[in-house]
Amino acid sequence: MYQKPATVAAIHDLSGVGRCSLSVILPTMSAQGIQVCPVPTAILSTHTGGFGDVVLRDLTDYIPSALEHYKRLDYKFDCVYSGFLASKEQIDHCLEFFEHYKNSLKVVDPVMADNGKPYKTCTAELRSRMNELVEIADMITPNITEAAMLLGEAPNQPDVTMQKIKSYLVRLSEIGPKIVVITSVFSDGKAYNVGYDREHSKFWRVPYNLINASYPGTGDVFASVLTGSILRGDSLPIAMNRATAFLEFAIKTTYSYSTDVRDGIMLERCLNFLIENPTLCDYEQM
Ligand code: PXL
To answer: Reduced to 3 states, what is the DSSP secondary structure of residue 77?
Structure first.
């Protein structure tokens, strides 16, 4: 029988060059059979990671008007997913979206920083308000730098014990979300993506092989695969497994071509993995 694809309102920026945000979220979720409805927060010529003076058109005014239109249409989204925001006012606009779609899956990717440093356009004011979105989220997907920032801790934590990571996961969940997934965690010389499911009191981790290159947009792809997988009915560890395995495949593929890292991962060569949707069970309990 025909089944309507799940619909996601993705509140994120559109960067023209560099394979991040909506440019990768759209194909990633489409390949998983999900309908993505973009709500752009800004249009940028490139991402902010190394291309010099970026051209940025802030779309703060657009978001509440788009929401009003969806309300008039009584349009339903199965999930609202927020990511890169261009102004602190956009926090209010995301809150309005989440409030209106209160029965939809609320995913917050608190895009603020990576490798211990905030992104160029992510101001201290915007960073200080990100917790308001975390409070109302069902699931959040910070990297380790963002996780520390949300908890008011020093962001540069190169190697952390699993005990400390468990405390991060629980403390972040206490702010609101019942699912917390932290990416790029280094512990005992190994790399992991880790997760906590408060309802079932379970901690999960998925190890991965580290490649000596850092590509922009990988956090956006991770959150998209994870969210798509959950919307398709996968369990949390299987969804984390799928997102980690896909990123490992895409990063290793890209690295083999010695491309400019600023161009991000070669998604076009890798989407078949998501379309084929292999059965996976390669996770560990913490
Ligand atoms: O991948 C996160 C991200 C999203 N959007 C923009 C960015 C970045 C990271 O650099 O610059 C515009």
So the answer is: coil
